[in-house]
Automatic annotation (TrEMBL):
Domain of life: Bacteria
Pfam families in the record: TPP_enzyme_C (PF02775)
InterPro entries, per database record: 2-oxoacid:Fd_oxidoreductase, THDP-binding, TPP_enzyme_TPP-bd
Domain Thiamine pyrophosphate enzyme TPP-binding: 70-222
An example Gene Ontology biological process: small molecule metabolic process
Signal peptide: none
Protein name: 2-oxoglutarate oxidoreductase
Keywords tagged on the record: Oxidoreductase
Molecular function terms, GO-annotated: oxidoreductase activity, acting on the aldehyde or oxo group of donors, iron-sulfur protein as acceptor; thiamine pyrophosphate binding
Length: 257
């Protein structure tokens, strides 16, 4: 068996389909090797392309590692101040109710400086989709402790591990927003395997479809890795994520109305 044949068999066994989409631009991404952002970008791009809503989609990019998301997806974009993406998405959705509006935010952007913004947007039940990437650390600014950093996790600002007695406990944002009456769909996914990506794409499609029914916000959390911030290889990062993050941030749908 040739190497090419063996690779084709592996792809067939995993049911992986590599699609070229007009939504995903042919630009070299700036993300670190092993970063989950690139996979999530591709999943969002494929769903937008499959739904045929490229001309009707508006993204709101954050401050953080994914601040340049507009360089990779060929849709209309707006740039929000740190943590203010839900407010900007609210205005966009209300002014243009025929658009599919989403925010793309990290844990520092959404759960720290933007905590009030996301809580009130969810409580109001805005017709938007929120993509919340949780890698338990501030990636862009040097690997500091984030609101989602696990107890005992070492970061640049918690060199001896997070001490919950002095810094509080890791925030479970999905569980928090699921309790609000304005949220319609709340799920926590991942993107480390082909199977996980397929589940993520189903959640993305459901979120976009929900915006047309004007019945509340769709909140999609994606547990990801940060190889640079965690000081691990991409392979080690995936193992650490499964062994440490998944138990505290369990995958699955928390709310679906």
């Amino acid at each position: 068996m040739t190497a090419t044949t063996e690779l084709k068999n592996i792809i067939s066994e995993e049911n992986v389909v590599y699609k070229k989409t007009s939504v995903l631009l042919d630009n070299e991404m700036h993300y670190c090797p092993g970063c989950t952002h690139g996979v999530i970008h591709k999943a969002i791009a494929e769903v937008i392309d499959e739904m045929g809503i490229q001309e009707k989609t508006v993204g709101v990019s954050p401050v953080g590692c994914s601040v340049l998301a507009y360089n990779y997806l060929d849709i209309d974009w707006q740039q929000a101040a740190h943590g203010r993406a839900p407010a900007l998405a609210t205005a966009t959705s209300r002014l243009m109710p025929d658009k599919y509006v989403f925010t793309y935010q990290g844990d520092g952007d959404l759960a720290s400086i933007g905590c009030a913004e996301i809580m009130h947007a969810c409580n109001r039940g805005e017709s938007i989709v929120v993509f919340f990437v949780n890698n338990a650390i501030y990636g862009m600014t040097g690997g500091q402790m984030a609101p989602t950093t696990l107890e005992g996790q070492v970061t640049a600002t918690s060199p001896y591990g997070r001490d919950c007695h002095t810094t509080g406990f890791p925030m479970k944002m999905s569980e928090m927003v699921a309790m609000l009456p304005g949220t319609r769909f709340v799920t926590r996914e991942s993107a480390e395997t082909p199977g996980a990506v397929r589940k993520l794409k189903k959640a993305i499609r459901k979120g976009f479809e929900n915006t047309r029914e004007d019945k509340g916000i769709s909140f999609i959390e994606i547990v990801g890795t940060c190889s640079s911030g965690w000081k691990m290889s991409p392979v080690q990062s995936n193992v650490w994520m499964k062994e440490n993050m998944f138990p505290y941030y369990p995958l699955g749908t928390l709310k679906d109305e």
